[in-house]
Write a structure and sequence with these properties.
170 residues; six-stranded antiparallel β-sheet; Rieske Iron-sulfur Protein; rod-shaped; alpha+beta
Length: 170
């Protein structure tokens, strides 16, 4: 018959088993921590990056401009440009060769969500943003030529009626 009080337990086997259990427990915890670190890192990267949604907002534009009235009559001369109301932060109208007009939003394409991000001045087919500072060729599709802005200015459609009414729309 077997008696429990004479049973001797080998302590080295117990420590070996407990040691293995502790190591496997630690390895499991490390694996869980790695997963958590990966999730936190990826989430931080996604949330901290500049938003790809930082673009010039889409707003409804349907402006009628009578080119025979002041201050729009300046646009009758080819190579001239003005700033008009409409769009996100205003509209830039450039009169090219003949009856070719180019129409852009005044909102700068570099960090357009900033309140100061707009075209401040127009000169000889070049638009200038004083906020970033960037230069754009308004006589060449609003292309960025200098500064941190990499995207072109936002373009609008236009049509010219026989009675010199310029319609700007999107």
């Amino acid at each position: 018959m077997f008696r429990l009080n004479n049973f001797k337990v080998r302590k080295d086997i117990i420590f070996l088993i407990l040691g293995k259990l502790k190591i496997s427990f630690i390895l499991v915890k490390i694996a869980q921590m790695k997963k958590i670190i990966y999730i936190v890192t990826i989430s931080t990267l996604i949330l901290s990056c500049n938003s790809k949604d930082d673009y010039i907002s889409d707003v409804y534009v349907n402006e009628l401009i009578d080119l025979s009235l002041d201050p729009y009559n300046k646009l009758i001369t080819p190579g001239s440009s003005i700033i008009a109301n409409g769009g996100v932060k205003g509209i830039i109208i450039y009169h090219g060769v003949g009856n070719d007009y180019k129409v852009y939003d005044r909102n700068c394409s570099y960090e357009p969500s900033l309140s100061c991000s707009k075209i401040d001045s127009l000169d000889a087919g070049i638009a200038y943003c004083g906020c970033c500072p960037s230069f754009f060729l308004i006589n060449d599709n609003g292309r960025s030529i200098y500064g941190p802005a990499l995207r072109d200015l936002k373009k609008y459609n236009w049509s010219l009626s026989n009675n010199n009414i310029l319609r700007i729309f999107n």
